[in-house]
Amino acid sequence: MNRKTKALSxxxxxxxxxxxxxxxxxxxxxxxxxxxxxxxxxxxKRVALFNVKAINGQGKYVLRGESNLxxxxxxxxxxxxxxxxxxxxxxxxxxxxxxxxxxxxVIKISVANLRSKPAHSAELATQATLGTPVKxxxxxxxxxxxxxxxxxxxWVDSGGIQLMDSVKANVWRSSHKIIFTETYGHTYSVQDKSxxxxxxxxxGGVLEKIEENNQFFKVKYPDGRMAYxxxxxxxxxxxxxxNLNPSNETLVATSKTLxxxxxxxxxxxxxxxxxxxxxxxxxxxxxxVIPRDAxxxxxxxxxxxxxxxxxxxxxxxxxxxGRKASDSIKEKVVHVxxxxxxxxxxxxxxxxxxSSVDKNAGNYDAxxxxxxxxxxxxxxxxNEGMINxxxxxxxxx
Length: 397
Prior knowledge:
It contains 9 helices and 27 strands.
């Protein structure tokens, strides 16, 4: 195919796509307004739900679908009214009334696998560790659509979550808690590490504290199970918050405790991490909740470098990799790692490992060096997409 023929083919393809879109808008004039509102209020379907469509019912359009954004639905209705468009509002605002008030929950197992759809065969979208409070929007069979503190939307099966109404959720939030600080461990039925295991537990797991002595915390699970946790492996949550002093050094130290953990698509725990799950875990263990995916994390923090000079980077800065934008395609961020100094970054690729941007180093990573996009500084950067646990209560009011 010569260049002229190829150009003509591209033109015709674009022409027909645009023509089809215009024709659909003529058939359904509300679609343009729905798309506008969705772009304005819910541009990222990973963190906002706005599934609304207009159906022509004998001369009057019916708005159907669901959303967890009441303001977006109100904005759509106001826009349609301002255009003198007659419609019937049948959009369901979530949480669903079928939940009977149990619209909050807490993860009750060491690590809950959160899926993109309500099925164990669906893609692992992300994970949530023990004690994570979540919003519940609706149920389907044995599954619940939830939203984690980083606003990520996903499905969890009933075995991973304890449903709560607002009263029980407030009681849980106000209780004293402990946080597990070792990479991996167990809780026990009595004050003896050789006793029956109640469950496994990973770094960042949070439990209600009942009492304590010199060697153990007595704790309570969200579902009522009682257990004991070694004091050597956990801290009082309030004291942990008070002692937090995240720095370049603590970020690096935390990252290195996770060396060798296997790569797991969708993983955000010390049982397995993907690239952004790894950076997310590092920051969480230093008291910060950052966005879930690399393509979201890249929009946080302060720009530091985009030229491969690396000279302005400090330990803790995030490096982003992927496909550069061109005249015909958009940029695509697909990988992230964290700078640790000495021309090295740590990242989850096959396993958590350290790579170098120095072409003379034994661990030089040519593949990622060649697809490097930019670096951002997250530490001490104020951003809407980030939560500082010392300033915003998530696990405890």
